[in-house]
Amino acid sequence: MGWKTKQGQTETCYKFFTNLANPTRLAAIEHLMEKPMSVNELATALKQEQSMISHNLKPLLQCNIISIEKQGRKHIYTVNQETLNPIFNAIKNHAEKFCPRGGKCLRGDKS
Q1: How far apart are CA 34 and CA 85, in angstroms?
Q2: C-alpha–C-alpha distance, residues 67 and 25, integer Å
Q3: pLDDT tier for residue 95 given thresholds of 50, 70 and 90
């Protein structure tokens, strides 16, 4: 994907990271990083209603952060490892290298 203007990059990053900033979506992604799962498996793991999980998976599918594969009657969700592994590794590296106060900078603590 080419970046034509600074505004285009800003909008793309905003939309991408907005998807990741939602706690339910991020929790679903974390579970999917471990293994592919159905919406019912995710709902059970997250202790949420299936409809809530389905609602939160839709924007992740639209952004290709996750994908879906039909296996019989089940729809199995998988995470886009190519995109997310480098991002999560960068966040982990940042936390370890630049957040010497136990990651407080990542929680928004001011102390």
Answers
A1: 12
A2: 14
A3: confident
